[in-house]
Design goal:
By secondary structure, the protein is an alpha/beta fold. It has 13 helices and 15 strands.
């Protein structure tokens, strides 16, 4: 039986590679040889010693079980999740909200059926986004979490060059928001406390960078927007303080997209916070699958996408890569599963 390498958590703050069987294509699930693996929040599992599966990748289709939407040799970005492909959410492109996710372990017969931190993976053919010619696997992989959540938020909020956008959180997702906002011509305010990421936000084009601990942050945002408040907010930090800031500084009739995962309670009052301001607040996870062509255009046309990638490392250095992510001294870190 042919085997491949898989990155796994082996203990608290410990990671390494193991050998596992290469899965086989089945029905409309095709085999993808992975060439780029962006890291996201997996470092949190590494810190706690619990296993993760990964959810981002880009690679090449190398085997199919039946004729379908892709063919051997196609270069593709792997979309996250394992949705059913049949419900109303899937059919309208909102597959990320599918309520009938496929049990990948049961379907594929392997415990790592949904894992992307591998040299080969299985994925439904309709969840593979074509990569434009001339775009590297590394840059194309930003169509997952590097650019995806904030792209989806700005699509829903119809952000244009007439808008001022506030982005709270300067991790890889928030920095991707700077790239998306500047591509659309908007003015961008970045709120981040880590100096490395403050400087990266400026490098990517942020017009104003503020520290969340600044006691004058609300007045500075008001001054920057001629007293009106920002048109749109993207909350990527997962902190209730940032959620509260967005509610406070968004203009009347403005919009807020909550992207950062958070289980803490947020104190709000319906009348002053929502009704009288007339704002729209929505949860944002990913983007509609029909936006795939547009996000690939951002990657192809914006030179800032290259700068969003700060580290490219062999998958054999998974330990060092997770240490780097946990240090927050990086933007998007990408693993190459075939590099030595």
């Amino acid at each position: 039986m042919k085997t491949m390498k898989r990155a796994v958590i082996t203990g608290v703050k410990q990671a390494g590679l193991v050998e596992v069987p290469i899965p086989q294509p089945k029905e409309d699930w095709v085999l993808v040889k992975v060439h780029a693996i962006p890291l996201c929040t997996e470092y949190k599992g590494w810190l706690g010693g619990w296993q993760y599966s990964g959810h981002e990748a880009a690679g090449e289709v190398v085997a199919v079980a039946q004729p379908g939407k892709v063919k051997v040799g196609d270069r593709v970005v792997v979309m996250p999740g394992s949705p059913c492909g049949k419900c109303s959410y899937c059919l309208e492109g909102e597959y990320i909200h599918c309520e009938h996710m496929v049990n990948t372990t049961q379907f594929t017969g392997i415990e790592y059926g949904a894992d992307t931190h591998v040299q080969y993976l299985l994925k439904q053919d309709w969840l593979l986004l074509p990569i434009l010619d001339g775009i590297s696997y590394e840059r194309a992989s930003l169509a997952c979490c590097g650019l995806g959540p904030t792209f989806g938020a700005m699509e829903n909020m119809n952000v244009t060059a007439f808008d001022t956008v506030l982005i709270t959180g300067g991790g890889p997702v928030g920095l991707g928001g700077v790239v998306n906002g500047k591509y659309r011509g908007a003015r961008v305010i970045s709120v981040e406390g880590i100096p490395y990421r403050q400087e990266k936000a400026r490098e990517l084009g942020a017009d104003l960078v503020l520290d969340p601990g600044d006691p004058e942050i609300r007045s500075k945002i008001r001054d920057f927007t001629d007293g009106l408040g920002v048109d749109a907010c993207l909350e990527t930090s997962g902190r209730v303080e940032a959620q509260r800031l967005c509610i406070d500084v968004v203009r009347c009739k403005g919009q807020i997209s909550i992207i950062g995962e958070c289980d803490d309670d947020l104190a709000v009052k319906a009348s002053p916070d929502f009704i009288r301001k007339g704002i729209i607040v929505r949860g944002q996870w990913h983007y509609n699958l029909n936006g795939g062509v547009r996000i690939m255009q951002v990657i192809n046309r914006s030179p800032a996408t290259e700068k969003l990638i700060t580290h490219v490392m062999p998958m054999s250095q998974i330990q060092q890569a997770l240490e780097l992510c946990a240090s927050h001294q990086c933007a998007k870190v990408i693993l190459q599963p075939w590099a030595v």
